[in-house]
Description:
This protein has helices at 27-42, 56-68, 80-83, 86-94, 111-120, 160-166, 169-196, 200-220, 225-254, 259-283, 289-300, 307-320, 333-357, 363-389, 398-425, 434-442; strands at residues 2-8, 49-52, 75-77, 102-107, 134-139, 152-158. The chain is an alpha/beta fold. A six-stranded mixed β-sheet has the order 3-2-4-1-5-6. Helix 7 (169-196) runs antiparallel to helix 8. It is elongated. Residues 434-443 have low confidence and may be disordered.
Amino acid sequence: MKEIILVRHATAEAQDAKNDLERKLVPKGFKESQNTGFLLAKLQKEVDIILTSHADRAMETADQIQSIVYRKISRKVDMDLYTGGIEDYLKAIRNLDDHLDAVLLIGHNPVLEELVAYFINCELSSISFPKASIYCFNVDNNLWREVGNTPSKLAFFINRGSIERFLDQSDEKKLNKPLKKQYSTSENLFKRAKREGFKTGLTHDIRIMNRRWLSLMELSGCDSEALQTTIKTVMDTTGKYRDRCVQTKILKKTNPGRSIYNCWKKKTSKQKKLLAKTLGNQIKQDIISPYREVYEKIINERGRLSNFEMKSNIRESLNQLKINSHQTLEDNKTEWHEFRLKAKDVRYKIEFYKIINQEELFDTELEQLIFLQKSLGKMRDYEKLINKITKQSDRFDNEEIQNTVNNIQKLLKEKWMEVSDFLENNPGFSIPSCCDEIQEKEK
């Protein structure tokens, strides 16, 4: 079964024979295109490729649809969809690779009307295809080259005037509440920081909040350079603050002689005060504006977080979350660190999805990601602390340093064994080794 979704470009500037190719969408056309994307997202219509004419109005229609849905779907521009007739449209469809199951084609009248009449075998005079409207056909065939030679069934037709009525406003309310909570939490955390100063627990909450914003931007496709910059500034400083706290806590457990711990604690206290002052100076500025701008943009373009688009994004992220589990503890630590950050990103995307949709989907994956993220985070903390302590030979007794390092390494190896056992029992996260691939081929 193949699926063909036909969309006529949205409302553009008045026709001008000399510059027809360069006609742009008018504001109404941008809204129509976005609504088309909202509807396709709501209907959970999946496509594997987008075909579009190279006319500006068709390209801009595709841009707006893909800002809402199909953000990572490849687009192919076919000039014959602007200049050609029905045979050119059929050729564009018939030349698709058979591993693709669904296509979204954005084109022009009168050819689109002729194509619809051809598919359903009726008089052209009975077909209407208004701008920014949708025809969807199911083709009872697994070969694109046979399109038109086998029966095509009209799945649905919806014109632009009806699309808004199909957009359920309850979805907007369901989405607005968690988004508003996310923004309110951010605002309140920075207000507390201004009022109370930075503390360990508050710093931890601010870091989690910022991680959620990064995941939300990736999930919605609503990137903001201003917010990225703000988050990086805050995360860099809070990261140093957080490291001081965690390292002191580990030393309390692993330094039996207490000399390193006591010195570290005293030094850390001074460093934390300096970092808290730096953070305080940062948030005295209007730091909340970039958060508000992204929040308002997503609220105004609610289709960015449609159930369908979020599921697709999360599934793709999970499929890409792979690690070479055949490494040893001493192998590429940068790869493990990058894997941990990606796991954290997917974790927060799943949590946000579950808050909105109240579904049990991704429950198992969420539990696994939390384990991986936290375990790999502890391993990284242990390694960073070992590196720092081994450089202190001129300040502390070598035997005490060695005993402390050995104790931390013991914790590191224990955590590494937990991660190794997990990856062995959950091979979905692992990149197959060459031996695995050979055995699979032999089977």
